[in-house]
Amino acid sequence: xxxxxxxxxxxxxxxxxxxxxxxxxxxxxxxxxxxxxxxxxxxxxxxxxxxxxxxxxxxxxxxxxxxxxxxxxxxxxxxxxxxxxxxxxxxxxxxxxxxxxxxxxxxxxxxxxxxxxxxxxxxxxxxxxxxxxxxxxxxxxxxxxxxxxxxxxxxxxxxxxxxxxxxxxxxxxxxxxxxxxxxxxxxxxxxxxxxxxxxxxxxxxxxxxxxxxxxxxxxxxxxxxxxxxxxxxxxxxxxxxxxxxxxxxxxxxxxxxxxxxxxxxxxxxxxxxxxxxxxxxxxxxxx
Length: 287
Description:
Elements: E1 2-5, H1 10-19, E2 26-30, H2 33-39, E3 45-48, H3 54-60, E4 66-69, H4 77-91, E5 95-101, H5 111-124, E6 130-135, H6 146-152, E7 154-157, E8 163-164, H7 169-181, E9 188-192, E10 198-199, H8 200-211, E11 216-219, H9 222-231, H10 236-250, H11 260-265, H12 272-278, H13 280-283
Parallel strand pairs: 1-2, 1-4, 2-3, 4-5, 5-6, 6-9, 7-11
Antiparallel strand pairs: 8-10
Helix pairs in contact: 1-7, 4-5, 8-12, 9-10
């Protein structure tokens, strides 16, 4: 049996959508049973608990042999994942697949990269066979632009002409299922990106084509982006982290394409053009 921690998130839901029709038994670990029941297939075992409650983790790990570890970016992320790894070690888990980020490093100046780097180090030292999936920015993150696109025909970001090799979460999910169910991926670290790096100008063109009306991209200043995030109540650490990420992308730090997805899946990574076709209804406001 496979336990999915982060089962109601962007990647976790897609993993379960693959496992369930394939007849692979999965458990979903969640803090909100009712919400999970509305999002996940009926045959999924839902285990309610908290990542800082080791007892609930140990209960969820009963009869589990493999674990997919996905946690949100948060100052408590390292301690949460340490709890999971420790409970898994005591429970005799045979494999952990951890979702991480490109550039993960315990010494990184980026908080998120540092947190993931520390958790990767904890996992490697645990003795549990592991696979690490270092992921680029999700294509699904652009769905945050859907309300302004539907209302104004425009979206706003502080990225100027930067190109980003965004990855579709559905591809990440397919890779996760492969490495969870095959034995040849132990001890491997994979880097998951899309097939090409695209600018938000190109994103606007593809959206225009997909939804049948013009969509414009307006590049805003970092200062305006910061003010917008503060107004929306983003925590200070996240504001600074996102601003740093925007600067990295504007300097070309998001352009590199890795071939790990086609190497693992035997098919190309999904393009952004395919992504916007599949999610056009959301960008049109039909949700």
